[in-house]
Amino acid sequence: MAGRKRRKMKSLAATAPNNGAASSEEREESDEQNSLFRVPVDILEQILCRLNLKENILASAVCKQWLAAAISVRVANKPPWLMFFPKFGDLVEFYDPSVRQTYSVELPELRGSRLCYAKDGWLLLYKPRSLRVFFFNPYTKDVINLPGLELTYQIVAFSAAPTSPDCIVFTVKHVSPTLVAISTCKPGATEWTTANYQNRLPFVSSIWNKLVFCNGLFYCLSLTGWLGVYDPEEHTWLVRVVPPPRCPENFFVKNWWKGKFMAEHNGDIYVIYTCSTANPVVYKLDQINKIWVEMQTLGGLTLFASFLSSQARIDILGSQIQGPSSNGFIDQFQSCRCSQVATLLRKK
Questions:
Q1: Which of 97, 168, 205, 326 has the most neighbouring CB atoms within 10 Å?
Q2: What is the pTM of this model?
Q3: pLDDT over threshold 70, residue 8
Q4: Strands, E, within 128-192: which ranges?
């Protein structure tokens, strides 16, 4: 009887699960999985630094080692600063929205100048009394002069920093609804090249810049939303048969063009409609189907709307639209108290 009991107990012991062995196997499997994520820190950082902000954040959730490495190489683009010209004097204000701090600096070089455009850390300025046109870098105070030109109602832009061989300055002004005058110039040139072009569709330029350089072409939005395109290599001008972006129904139709801005990012062109009583509306140009498509989400893009030159940024935490209250911007300089002219400028 005792022998049968012992045999029965032995049999039960043989069939019972071995908790110690199972936990050991699980640990081995867990260690094997963890070893897949154990990459030398220097190699891991080299991999993670090639990711955009969203991908970096996702990768940081893998494990503690990846989190530390992802944070060490994480770079979020800084928003543009806002630069304001004073009504009187030479004291210019810059506002950094990332730290909500204002800086003031004396810039007598800007006295008597009118700001035309800003890009890549450079201002394009015009002095009406002397017809002087010149670039100015507020960080280095470098000046690059252009030939004189009377700039009255032209809208103006340039393709790249004036230190780049790809820099082209472009101006367009409507002479009549079916005729525009276009002037171009490069740094180092002795004169501007001006030509008149006929339009198949009516084109009346706005008093505010709705003008971007994208994929080697200048794109310009007319007062009524028609899209003009200038090719500086071929010296051709065309008003494309693209129906204008629709003005939202809840916007003030009389003044809706005042809150219309244009920006470019990574080969795409955007039009932003703003109104004090409604949320902004953003359209993206579908180049293939030749239509403006309303965007339901910005997909990580941040737009900075300005009367003089608008900007778009990726990898700034959160998607949003920033716009001027009564002024414009300069690519990484911003301020919020002076009340005459402001623009966007990138801080190097």
A1: 205
A2: 0.71
A3: no
A4: 132-136, 143-146, 155-158, 169-176, 179-185
